């Protein structure tokens, strides 16, 4: 019998168990074929086609090169290429490598977040009175909610002091700072062992929150404040760069149109992450977010979910944030409180495509989802120690098992 796998990551894991890591990597590379597009090729299509024996090479009307090739084809061509062609082939190889690997860790000040085994969950705690869903009521509630996130298996807490919904007004930096800084201080004073993220685009708010002990700045504006990246770099903190079309708290009356949504999002995130690196932010401290719903219509959000894996070509960990968002509510014609199941479905799509950070309202359910998806992988299956019987059945424990 011949079995065809549709999951190249799973193929490599299974081969590693049979043949060893080195041989599995070699065979996995030979089996993997990618469609690669170079907008600035610096070489003619005929030259690349001649070098890449057996590959498909086309030039678009706009001048880009579209190459369908495997890693061994690219490596062989590079080894024999003249200097004028080598740079184009190196760019294809670099894109190939970024697309087939996931960053294993994220550096966040003194913390290293392990992303190698399963997606990590970031629980939302909103300290703004006009948030669309589930707001904290005072600092005691902030601490209680953060403890609950930790107890449910979350790895991060994301503190938000400003609603970005277009029906809510933009608040001053001083007011936002007065909301989020006491929350950070309360969490730190309570000794809760969670990575603290601050959902802000303002450099002055970021500075105050990082000084109070936060670890990450989650910028939903894609670095609209030119000083924010420098503040993050000065604190050796983490940075989430999100794609945004238009402005926060403003909805374009004519809606949002994309000729090629993922291409535009990838180009935006590439430019903004390079800007962050130039300002001193470590590459291994950066994560990216395609910005579901921000400057997008529901059809575009669905396209992002369908093509989510294309974001891997940037080489950064990907944060996935769709929890109870209005694009899901508009699709199902239901309010936010009724969107748990479709929110979990979108999270599963994100994890399968390579997301390793999940920003959610429902931490316990999403942690179970992430652990279940991790558990099916060959390397994880072999380490599981299941309970003898399911709790609640005859002979089973009365308390839930922590096996997964």
List keywords for this structure.
alpha/beta, TIM Barrel, 2 domains, 3-stranded antiparallel β-sheet, 42% helix, disordered N terminus
Largest sheet, strands/sense/barrel: 8 strands, parallel
Q: CATH superfamily of the largest domain, please?
A: Dihydropteroate synthase-like
CATH topology name of the largest domain, in short, is TIM Barrel
Tell me, what is the CATH class of the largest domain?
A: Alpha Beta
Strand fraction: 5-15%
* Lateral arrangement of strands in the main beta sheet: 11-10-9-8-7-6-13-12
Q: How many H/I helices?
A: 15
Mean pLDDT: 89
- Provide the CATH architecture of the largest domain: Alpha-Beta Barrel
| Radius of gyration from CA coordinates | 23 Å
The termini sit apart by 33 Å
Q: What's the helical proportion of residues? A: 40-55%
Shape: globular
Number of β-strand runs: 13
Low-confidence stretches: 1-6
| Class by SSE composition | alpha/beta
Kindly give the count of domains.
2
SSE succession? HHEHEEHHEEEHEHEHEHEHEHEHHEHH
What does this structure look like?
This protein has 404 residues and is of the alpha/beta class. It has 2 domains: 32-100, no CATH class; 105-380, Dihydropteroate synthase-like (TIM Barrel, Alpha-Beta Barrel), CATH 3.20.20. The protein has helices spanning 8-19, 21-31, 45-51, 71-80, 83-100, 139-151, 173-189, 203-212, 228-234, 261-278, 298-306, 326-332, 340-353, 363-375, 378-381; strands at residues 33-38, 56-59, 65-70, 105-108, 111-114, 120-126, 156-160, 195-199, 216-219, 238-242, 286-289, 319-320, 357-360. Helix 1 packs antiparallel against helix 2, helix 7 (173-189) packs parallel to helix 8 and helix 8 packs parallel to helix 9. The longest helix has 18 residues, at 83-100. It starts with 7 loop residues before the first helix and ends in a 23-residue tail after the last helix.
